[in-house]
């Protein structure tokens, strides 16, 4: 008789209604592929609107045409476009613009997409770039401290982070904390 260690059997595999037998690919919607050329073209059109003084139209166009099906490079180009738009809008214009967006057709969804871009922008500006290096120095307390040494590279992430945090504050005031939850649970990434 063969001995079986009953503790190593995964009983979830034997239950047909178990979550381990569920195909999670059905949870994510099928997204049409978006090429980098299309995103570059869209970025040019959006920047043209921005240069023409229509910051709200540029923001609406960027949020309504998020490249969910694009590769990482295309998504990064679109992120840079959205951050450029956000940086060009004055702080006194943020709340009225968000209220107009929220009240329009598809407004709450557009604000959720904006929240996705805010979080992605915050994560990108906190990552070290090739222009900076990090050193770790031990402290007498036993903890280590990480120092970031900037080697040039323009305005840095501090100004962009400040703008993104300001937008986040205004966006939560208008759309509420439910926007954060919807962004965290949505499987589509920008």
Describe the structure.
The chain has 190 residues and is mostly helical. It is 55% helix and 7% strand. The chain contains seven helices and two strands, in the order αααααββαα. The protein has a two-stranded antiparallel sheet with strand order 1-2. A hairpin with a 5-residue loop joins β1 and β2. α1 runs antiparallel to α2, α1 packs parallel to α3 and α2 runs antiparallel to α3. The longest helix has 20 residues. About 3% of the residues have low confidence.
Question: Which key features would you list for this structure?
Answer:
two-stranded antiparallel ribbon, 190 residues, 7% strand, mainly alpha, 7 helices
Secondary structure elements and their pairing?
Blueprint: H1 36-51, H2 55-64, H3 72-88, H4 91-103, H5 107-126, E1 132-138, E2 144-150, H6 156-175, H7 178-185
Antiparallel strand pairs: 1-2
Helix pairs in contact: 1-2, 1-3, 2-3, 3-5, 4-5, 4-6, 5-6, 5-7
């Amino acid at each position: 008789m063969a001995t079986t260690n009953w503790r190593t059997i995964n009983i979830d595999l034997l239950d047909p209604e178990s979550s381990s037998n569920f195909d999670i690919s059905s949870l994510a919607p099928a997204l049409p592929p978006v090429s980098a050329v299309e995103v570059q073209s869209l970025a040019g059109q959006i920047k043209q609107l921005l240069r023409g003084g229509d910051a709200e139209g540029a923001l609406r166009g960027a949020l309504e045409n998020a490249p969910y099906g694009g590769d990482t490079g295309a998504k990064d180009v679109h992120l840079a476009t959205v951050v450029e738009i956000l940086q060009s809008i004055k702080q006194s214009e943020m709340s009225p613009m968000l209220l107009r967006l929220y009240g329009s057709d598809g407004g709450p969804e557009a604000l959720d997409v904006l929240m996705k871009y805010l979080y992605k922008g915050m994560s990108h500006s906190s990552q070290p770039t090739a222009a900076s290096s990090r050193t770790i120095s031990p402290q007498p307390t036993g903890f280590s401290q990480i120092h970031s040494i900037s080697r040039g590279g323009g305005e840095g992430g501090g100004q962009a982070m400040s703008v993104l945090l300001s937008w986040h504050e205004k966006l939560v005031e208008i759309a509420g904390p439910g926007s954060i939850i919807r962004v965290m649970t949505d499987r589509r990434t920008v």
